[in-house]
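cache lookup: miss for this entity combination. No prior model stored, computing from scratch. Input as submitted by user K.M.:
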Amino acid sequence: MTQKSWMYSVFEAVQYEMQQDPAMTWIFELTPPVASNPGLPVINLETEFGRKRVVNTGIDENWMVSAVLGAGLAGSKAATYIPYQGALMPFQVIQNVAGKLRHKTGGIAELPVVWVIEMTGQTPGFGQQHSCYEEDSYYMHIPGVRTVIPSTPYDAKGLMHAALRSSDPVVYLYPAGLRTLTEEVPDEPYEVPLDKAAIRQEGSDLTIVSSGAGMPGVLDAVETLTGEGMSVEVIDLRILKEMDTETIVNSVAKTKRLLTVDQSYYTLAPGAEVVARAAENVEGARFKRVAFPDAPPPASPEMFTWMRLSAEGIAGAARDLV
Amino acid sequence: MTHDLESSRRARDADAPSSESRRGFLKLAALTGAMVSTTGTRALADGDIGFFAKDLSDEKLTGMYRTILRIRWHERTQADEMLTNPDYRGYNHFYAGQEAVATGVCAALRNGGPFDQIDMVYSSHRPSGHAIAKGVDIPKMVAEMDFRSTGMNGGYGAGMHISDPTVGFIGADGMIGPAPVIASGSAFSFRARGSDQVAVVFAGDGNYAAPHFHSTLNNSKLLDLPLIYVCENNLYHQYAHYSYSCPHKDIAEAAAAYGIPTEIVDGQDVVQVYNAAKEAVDRARAGGGPTFIEAKTYRDYNHWGAPGAKAGELGAFGYDPLAITSFRPEREVRAWMQRDPVDIARKILIDWGVLDDAGATTIEEEVKAEIAAAFEWGLSQPLCTPEDGLKHVFATGTVPARQFG
C-alpha cells in the first residue's frame, strides 16, 4: 500500500486491464494518459501500449465516444477520456445509441466500454463554459448506461476496474477538483461494486447524502457538526445509476431527516432523486436540499464562491433540519 | 461566383512553391510578398491584381499598425501581470504572434454604425486580439478579464467569454466546435434579410477535427452564405501538433473539397492577410458566398497563460506543466518569432514611406501608454457583488439561492 493520487490510482487500474487484455484500447485528446506518483514508476499508456491501441486524436468528442462504442461492439474492451471542454458534446451517442443498444437488440449487444468524463469548474474564474454542473444529472437519467462518480482515490481505482470488466456501458464521472486527493491505495487490482453507496460515517440524528465533488465540503461540515454534538450519517452515493435505494432508505428510516448536497444545479440534481426515493419509502421524514443555484457558474470569483457549496452552508442547512 | 476545383488545382500547382516544407513556403511567400491562392476565381483581365492594400490610405495603414501594437502590448502587459502581480487574478489564452491575422481581417470589415449593418465576428477561447481589432473598448476588456463589475460583461464572463455586439464582436466561445456553425447562422440571417453584412469566424487548427467544421463549410456553400472562415493555423491545438488531428498540410485543402474558394496566407504579414480578407468580403457582399482563409501563424506564448515566460520578455520558452509530455520545440518558437508581425508591419510601412522610423517609434510609445492606462483603469475598478450571480439567467428577475438549503 502506498499513498496514491487520484489519477495515478485510475491509471493503475487502466494499465492493469490493458496488460491483461491486448485488445483493449484507450483514446484521448489533448491530455496524455500519463500519471506519476512519488516512489512509483511513471505510468504512460501511450509509450507502454503503442499508438495503435492508445490514440491521441483531434478535438472530436463525438468520434471518441462513438469509436469506443464501436470498438466495444467489435469485441474490444475500450475506454476514452473526455476532458472538461467536451463532456456533453457526445451526449447523443450515449443517450440515443449506447443506452438503448442492449435493449433494442433483445439483450444481444455487449458493451464493454467506459467513457471517463471530466467534470470541472471548481476553480474560481473558469466561468460558465468550463464548469460542469449538470453532467451527473444528465447521464444518470439515461437507462442502460451505468453512471458512477467516485470521490476518493480508492474508489476511483476500484470503480475503474469494475467499469472496465462490466459488459454494460459505463459513464465514469471524474470530478477534476478532487485530483489533489491522496490516500492509501492497494497496488493489486480490486473492484468497488457498481451498485453500492458508501456509508462514510454512521449516525442517528441526520442523514447527509452527496457524491463526487460535493463530498469534501460535506466531510468538513460533518466534522464541525459532530463537534457540536450532532450524530450525522454520511452517505457517498458513488453510483448514480443504478442508485442504491436500500442504503438511502435504511438510513433515513433511522434518522428521519435527510439533507442532500450536490455540486450541481438544484433542479433535478442527484439529490432530487434521493429525496424522492426516501419520501416514497419512509414515513414522516423531513428533507432539505443544498445545491448550486439554477444559474450558470459566473466567472467572477466573488459571485462564484458565494454561489457554490461551502462547509458553512451545508452545516447551516443541517442545523436547520435537526 | 462558381468554383472550379480543377482550375483551382491548376492554380495552386502553378503558384505553390516546390518546397514541401512549411517554413520554406512561408519564407518564399514573405520574400515575394505574394499571396498564394488555391483558387483561380479572380478575373485578372479586369486589372484587379488582388493587391488591395495598394489602395489604402496612409491613415488606414497607420491605424492597422496601431492595432497590431495595441494587441501586442495588451498581451505583453497582461502576461506580465500574471507573472509578477500576485493580486492579479485574470488570465488569457494569449494571441501575441498572431496579431496580423485579426488586424488584417478586421481592417476589411465594417466595424461601426447601426447594428443591422455592422459585420459580425465570432471568436474563440483566444479572443483578445480579435476583440481589439474589431474595436472593443480596451479598458473595459481589461476590467472584464480581471472580473470587475464595470467590465464589458459585468465580470460575468471574463477571458473566454468577452462580447461587445455594438462593434460587431459577438464574442468569444470557450468551446472548440460550435462557433463556426453559429457564425454561419448569422450569415444565413444576412442573406435572408437581404443585408450585405458578412459574418467572420476566427478558429484555430484544432477546430478542423470537430464535426462542426465540416457542417459549417457544407451548409455555407450549399446556401452561398456570406461567411468568411478564418482558420488561424498556429500549428498546435492546446499542446498537440495539428498533424494529430488533420491529414492535410494545408487545412484549406479540406475547404476546397466543399467547393469553397480558399486562400492561404502568411499570417505574419498584415498586408497579405488584408488582401485575402478584402477579396473575401467583396465576394460575400456581392452574393458570391463563403471564403476560407487559412493564415499560417504561430503563438509566442503557450496555450494558456504565461507558464514558461519571463516578465518583460516576449515569448515562452520555459517549462509548461500543463503540457504534461507534449512541448513545442524551443527552436520552433524562436524561428517563428524571427518573423514577428509587429516588425513586418513596421518595415512595410517604413518601406512604403507611410511612416519613418521615428514616427513608428512614436506610435509604439503612444500605444504603450494607452495600454498602461487601460490596465491602471481596469484594475482599479470595483469587484462584483456576490448576489449578482443570481441575475441575468433570464431577461428579467433573479433565480433563488440554493446553496444554503
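stored under new cache key. The domain at 57-380 of chain B is CATH 3.40.50.970 (Rossmann fold).
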